[in-house]
Amino acid sequence: MTGAPAAPVFYLIPGLGADERVFQCWELAGEVHILKWLPPQSATEPLGPYAARLAAAVPVAQACWLVGVSFGGLLALEIAQLRPRARVVLVSSLAGPHELPWTLRAARATGLDRLLPPVLLQKLPWAAKWAFGVKTKGEYALLRQIIADTDPAFAQWAIGQLLRWRGVPGRGPAARLHGTHDRLLPPPATGIDCLVPGAGHFLVVSHAAQISHFLNQLADNSR
């Protein structure tokens, strides 16, 4: 006789500057770990070596799900290159640099990201509210807390890595979730498995129940 299938293992990677607070309403049926951001070793540390350091928390032989949110999706794809049994799920993220919206491509081309300090966002919370598509007081309060707690040096590094990311060869994501009204990283025309009507970039918080259901079903169907 064979035993019951092992419970799924999830490694969750939050977005730029965010932490476990964005996952507080997720309800996943399995073992859950949250990968916490590490300080970059330098202002120019490439994403690949950074991902290798982050991957140290994921056992090489472990079958698992890497769920990356926004900038965390890039790290999920990079880590999957080093963890052959890991499958990636992208939430409000990019599958490759070709999906960068024209606004961010312009920022990359002009070097605008190096001229505008990330602390500017802390002083303009209403702009962040619009960009992230936040609709409730609770979501706005959480977003303001996360922005206030974000290390400006880390944010500057991460934004630069996002804009200049070259993507990863071969393996793509197992599944993707995205909001139809994402202003920061608009969804591509194809390739999205769960397109959430009306959701913005704060999908990770605003539609926690829907994301949880999708991930649980995805993991269950893969056992």
TrEMBL record:
It comes from the Bacteria. InterPro entries: AB_hydrolase_1 (IPR000073), AB_hydrolase_fold (IPR029058). Residues 47-210 form the AB hydrolase-1 domain. Coiled coil: none annotated. It holds the Pfam family Abhydrolase_6. This is AB hydrolase-1 domain-containing protein. The lineage of its organism: Bacteria, Pseudomonadati, Bacteroidota, Cytophagia, Cytophagales.
